[in-house]
């Protein structure tokens, strides 16, 4: 297929921003999981041991949040729900079985939009709760009762975010031709027509 | 600071059995008889001397509490309360505060660093500072507000019940220093028995509610108080009436995490199964070929 036949989906800046977030997510997530359960403590070895893991994790988290702010601003307006999304959700089983004919999906489908809002919510919760439990800088200023709540909020939102990212990564592998959108920035016409027909119509106008 | 031991009941962030070949080791306890304490702080000084720490010189906050609070460099403090049981009658309550050495220690439960907190067979809960990562989770776990992070090295410290002395058959430094016998140390059974005698005596002298403080909410403690007003532990500078590990900490450190950890595995496996049963979602043959070409 010739390059001219391909449709641009993400600019170079958007791609760079996405991969910075992804890298920081892996680093923040792995260093956080090390503290989550002994089964994951070995991950602290990648960060120079338990103490370094503890020191670095909050900084990685804050950097992830700041870089995610970029994605949030870029993609916010594309993620409002439309009536077509309701239809997509109703036919979720069909979608899972690779039968998405007749769905008039825009730039993002309802699943992607839901994941977007899950990411927005959990990263904000992670930031707030993470700052509250951050030793030795901020935690001493908060009552112990609040620290107890914050650490539960932090680990639960981290879990939801990690689980969401698993789904996000799998979806990219499952729907062929998607990874290239974020590595090279373009998709094929067939891809756009099949998975995001409403978006395709809009950009071919 | 902890000493090496073959009698370890629990070890933080460790899911296998810690060394414990001897099994049953006698349980120890420190008994603090509040009715006999004169507030001389000999125990505070002895603790500083044996454990070789020096808190910074602070300022007087208008009470006899000096220093005013526990610190990484202050593992025990005497807390003074002026209490009026009835109008015109004054009682000066003095409570030696420090780690209670809970049978079910919230600090150890909360700790994410393998081996940073251990509970010996004799019941002493000890911090291994060289394994401590400085996260402060023990502070959230403790129902008595005891552990403190040091500003010097970022590690958590608290009373060791002189585990190093006890390990070689000595009594804790504070016990040795106490001039009135308000502090005694021995097996938990002996201390409970000794407390009964003290409570009988206090009751005969007008303290009808005198009682032993060995709170069941944390499985009992290896530091116990004889309280003349046993029905009102709160009056002794906020000693909790029914301490237990916070429900938030139990949710956070209980069954939730193994289940959540497993959940991530299930989601990952689910993706794989979906791929091999439903197959990839391809837009057209061109795309598929191209992806193969790109090695995706
Ligand atoms: C947004 C900024 C963030 C801040 C300020 C932050 C801060 C913290 C802090 C202070 C802790 C306590 C342990 C320590 O001292 O390091 C912690 C634990 C943790 N963090 Fe974060 N974090 C952030 C983002 C994240 C992200 C993005 C993830 C995962 C994707 C994450 C996952 C975790 C996990 C799993 C734990 C362990 C919680 C537990 O022990 O239950 N954090 N975080
Ligand atoms: S009093 Fe606090 S620091 Fe001491 S054993 Fe109990 S939970 Fe741990």
Question: In words, what does this structure look like?
Answer:
The complex is a heterodimer of chains A (205) and B (296). Chain A is an all-alpha fold and 205 residues long. Chain A has a single domain, classed as Fumarate Reductase Cytochrome B subunit (Up-down Bundle), CATH 1.20.950. In chain A, 67% of the residues lie in helices and 2% in strands. Chain A has a two-stranded antiparallel ribbon. Chain B is α+β, with helices and mostly antiparallel strands. Chain B folds into 2 domains: 8-235, Alpha-Beta Plaits, CATH 3.30.70.20; 247-295, no CATH class. A 4-stranded mixed beta sheet of chain B has the order 9-2-11-10. Mean pLDDT of chain B is 93; it is low at 291-296. Helices cover 29% and strands 16% of the residues of chain B. Classes of the chains: A mainly alpha (205), B alpha+beta (296). At the A-B interface, α1, α2, α6 and α8 of A face α3, α7, α8 and α9 of B. Iron/sulfur cluster binds at residues 99-102, 105-107, 125, 141-142, 144, 146-147, 158 of chain B. Iron/sulfur cluster (SF4) is lined by residues 99-102, 105-107, 125, 141-142, 144, 146-147, 158 of chain B.
């Amino acid at each position: 297929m010739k390059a001219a036949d391909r449709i641009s989906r993400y600019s170079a800046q958007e791609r760079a921003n996405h991969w910075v977030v992804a890298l920081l997510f892996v680093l923040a997530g792995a260093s956080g999981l090390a503290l989550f359960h002994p089964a994951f403590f070995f991950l602290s070895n990648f960060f120079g041991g338990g103490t370094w893991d503890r020191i670095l994790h909050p900084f990685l988290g804050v950097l992830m949040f700041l870089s995610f702010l970029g994605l949030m601003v870029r993609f916010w307006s594309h993620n409002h729900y439309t009536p077509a999304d309701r239809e997509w959700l109703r036919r979720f089983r069909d979608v899972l079985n690779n039968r998405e004919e007749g769905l008039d999906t825009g730039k993002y489908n309802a699943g992607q939009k839901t994941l977007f809002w899950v990411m927005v919510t959990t990263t904000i919760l992670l930031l707030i709760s993470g700052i509250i439990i951050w030793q030795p800088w901020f935690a001493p200023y908060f009552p112990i009762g609040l620290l107890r709540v914050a650490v539960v909020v932090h680990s639960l939102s981290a879990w939801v975010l990690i689980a969401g990212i698993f789904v996000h990564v799998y979806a990219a592998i499952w729907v062929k031709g998607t990874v290239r959108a974020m590595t090279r920035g373009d998709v094929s016409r067939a891809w756009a027509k099949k998975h995001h027909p409403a978006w395709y119509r809009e950009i071919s106008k | 600071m902890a000493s090496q031991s073959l009698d370890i009941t629990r070890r933080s962030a460790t899911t296998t059995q810690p060394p414990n070949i001897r099994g049953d080791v006698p349980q120890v306890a420190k008994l603090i008889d509040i009715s006999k304490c004169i507030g001389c702080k000999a125990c505070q000084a002895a603790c500083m001397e044996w454990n070789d720490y020096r808190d910074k010189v602070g300022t007087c906050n208008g009470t006899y509490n000096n220093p005013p609070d526990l610190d990484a460099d202050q593992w025990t403090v005497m807390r003074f309360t002026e209490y009026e049981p009835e109008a015109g009658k004054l009682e000066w309550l003095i409570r030696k505060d420090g780690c209670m050495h809970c049978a079910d220690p919230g600090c150890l439960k909360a700790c994410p660093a393998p081996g940073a907190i251990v509970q010996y067979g004799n019941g002493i809960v000890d911090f291994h500072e060289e394994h401590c990562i400085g996260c402060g989770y023990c502070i959230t776990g403790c129902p008595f507000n005891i552990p403190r992070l040091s500003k010097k090295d970022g590690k958590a410290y608290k009373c060791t019940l002189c585990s190093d002395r006890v390990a070689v058959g000595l009594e804790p430094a504070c016990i040795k220093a106490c001039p009135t016998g308000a502090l005694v140390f021995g097996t938990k059974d002996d201390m409970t028995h000794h407390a009964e005698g003290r409570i009988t005596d206090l009751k005969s002298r007008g303290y009808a509610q005198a009682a032993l403080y060995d709170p069941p909410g944390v499985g009992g403690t290896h530091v116990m108080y004889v309280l003349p007003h046993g029905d009102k532990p709160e009056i002794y500078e906020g000693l909790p009436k029914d301490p237990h590990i916070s429900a938030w900490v139990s949710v956070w450190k209980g069954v939730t995490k193994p289940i959540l950890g497993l959940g991530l595995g299930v989601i990952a496996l689910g993706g794989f199964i979906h791929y091999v049963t439903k197959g990839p979602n391809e837009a057209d043959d061109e795309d598929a070929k191209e992806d193969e070409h790109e090695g995706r």
